[in-house]
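Please review this one:
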Amino acid sequence: MTTHLARSRRLAAATAGVAALAAATTLTLAAPGTAAPAPTPDTLTSSAASRLADSLTDGERGDTAGAYYDADSGKLVVNVLGEAAAQRVRAAGAEPRNVTYSQAQLDATQRTLGERAVPGTSRGMDPVLNKVVVTADATVKGAALDRVRKAVAAQHGKAVLERTAGKFQPLLRGGDAIYASSGRCSLGFNVVKDGQPYFLTAGHCASLAGTSWSETQGGPVIGQVEDYGFPGRDDAIVKYTGNVAHPSEVNLYNGSAQQITGARQAVVGEQVQRSGSTTRLHGGSVQRLNVSVSYPQGTVNGLIQTNVCAEPGDSGGAMFAGSSALGLTSGGSGNCSSGGQTFFAPVVDALSRYGAEIG
């Protein structure tokens, strides 16, 4: 009796297991044509987003048009043209966004607008708008402003015009921090070249202020400019000639410093900080990359545009995110009372050009 009951229970259990397996199989095969759910975007730090953006928007395929970092969600959004690009972007952990204009179209638009640029204007591709944004400062008025408006209108929707208060200019002024014969700037980042200590600053500091730099006005020379570029680009490398400390860090003007361990490209949308000898430490976000700015002295290309404020004397100072060096303060408009825009020369470009490294 007991044996028969045990066999009955085992049979019932086996039958239930087969039924469950059949049900599971039926559930799996119920919709053979249903596509697998799309991967969800990864949550990234701004540093990780920068590296991913570089790999996905290298321009070789021609099916992306820039990227930006959503700091609130931690997602990297990549502009795409076509489903193949969208699938590649999803698989890499970013969020694809279909747009109208390709990177090549917008690059051509930016070049066209820069061919006869009006001083006091900047031009840069905005990945959020998927357009080239032309910004005119307060000095652009009358016939010059009409000319800018006509040039923007001629791009048939691929460009827009914005205005900004103040005047686009290199942020150079006499005062404290690092001094040359004709003005004051700010030290950017300490670097190493051929085993020797150097520092980076803005090219216009060398062009407009001088090539010998001191810690105090009229004090002993601590560094001599070895190479620089301005206009066209805006960076300089200075070789230390004096016996001074040169740690790889940025002054936070609160009694502490941020250690800098490397350099990378900025990514649109990330939060950054800027340290300078006039206004000390301020923060904001990256708005555009590869921006061209027409200063009174000439046009500078390849800049990073931000909404971080800066004032004369902050030129050459460090723009960074955490331990990553990003940019050297070039110029801008406005001030740290009313706000404004500031442009930065990319540090990675300067390091590559001069054969130096953070150290």
User: Anything to note?
Assistant: The chain has a mean pLDDT of 89. The chain is about 25% helix and 40% strand. The CA atoms of residues 109 and 115 lie 10 Å apart. The longest strand covers residues 280-295.
